[in-house]
Amino acid sequence: MKVNKRAGLALALLLAFVLVLSACGSKTNNANDAANAGGNAPANSGNAASGGTGADSLKGKKIALIMQFNQGTFSAQYVDGVTKQVEKYGGKVTVLASDNDLNKMVSNLDTAINQKYDGILLDHGNADALTNGVNKAVAAGIPVVAFDSGLSVDGVTSLAQNDQMLADKSLEALAKDAGGKGNIVKVWVAGFPPMESRQITYASFLKKYPDIKEIAQFGDANQPQLDAQTRMEAILKQYPEKGSITAVWAAWDEFAKGVTNAIKQAGRTEIKVYGIDMSDEDLALIQDPASPWVAAAGADPSSIGQVQVRYLYQKLHGDKTDATVQIEPVFVSRDALPTDKKVTTADLGEYVQGWGKSDQGNTDYLKELEQAVGK
């Protein structure tokens, strides 16, 4: 009898233990089901630790900036904008300049892919040269954002200034100041997507103003400022009479600086210069009352760099970004600037509406990341 009681007690204890295990298993399964169904579990919890898409996981990224050329103050301010924005996100930028050699740019792109950079930024180049390498980067899972490259690759965001608007703003100012007539010189070079786009507007401009005649054109992307100055000096000798040249339209600020130097040295400041792109050095020349350079259309080069970085980090976060992003330019004329102080791109927004820091491409999580890194 005693033996039977002990057996019954053991059986009861065993049944109780089984029931406890069953209840625990049921709670675990219910919790898992709730998480999988998107219940009360926080979104992206644990992503930073596991290398997911949490904002904290964006810190410490290695970014390659691959440039077709890296010369002039516009490029310097653009690089500064890229570098400072990446640093605000806790990352590091390596600049790979290609000395205006597309083959070297392709090689630099391969280097960035092989060295497994976290993200790639492209500055200029063209689709023919870069498409294969960019496809290779995308296949390797490396996000790419390009500026003024003319690329159309799935998964890649291409930034560009509104080049036809840039040309239109500067050319319309020329036409207005010239009274719709006169002889002009065009400084331009083929083979660059932004230049080709600006040329479309220029061709329409000549049709719109038949009394404005192009008497000469030139342009070389190698040593652009020096080449523009030398070529303009020769044209001034070819047209020595005052009034024989009304204006110069320069499709790049490096060209504008070169022709400005030539015109000033020749004492032919009745010839006016209209340019594209804007930097601190450009502003100083436009503000100078003795300078023939009177106006330009452009976008803040530093802001362009910042916006490009933001879109790259959106991709690193796992967001789907737009295929193309347009950066709207503004028009800057000497008449809009003060005569009693020097203006830089940092304070230009005080005098020209639309210029300055842009919030384009920013997100709440990028702002949080910037604040976290700043601490």
UniProtKB/TrEMBL annotation:
Belongs to the bacterial solute-binding protein 2 family. Residues 1-23 form the signal peptide. The keyword Signal applies. Gene3D superfamilies: 3.40.50.2300. Keywords: Signal. It comes from the Bacteria. It is found in: Cell envelope. InterPro entries: Bact_Solute-Bind_Prot2, Peripla_BP_I, SBP_2_dom. SUPFAM superfamilies: Periplasmic binding protein-like I (SSF53822). PROSITE patterns: PROKAR_LIPOPROTEIN. Its main location: other. It comes from Paenibacillus artemisiicola. Residues 63-319 form the Periplasmic binding protein domain. Pfam families: Peripla_BP_4 (PF13407). This is Sugar ABC transporter substrate-binding protein.
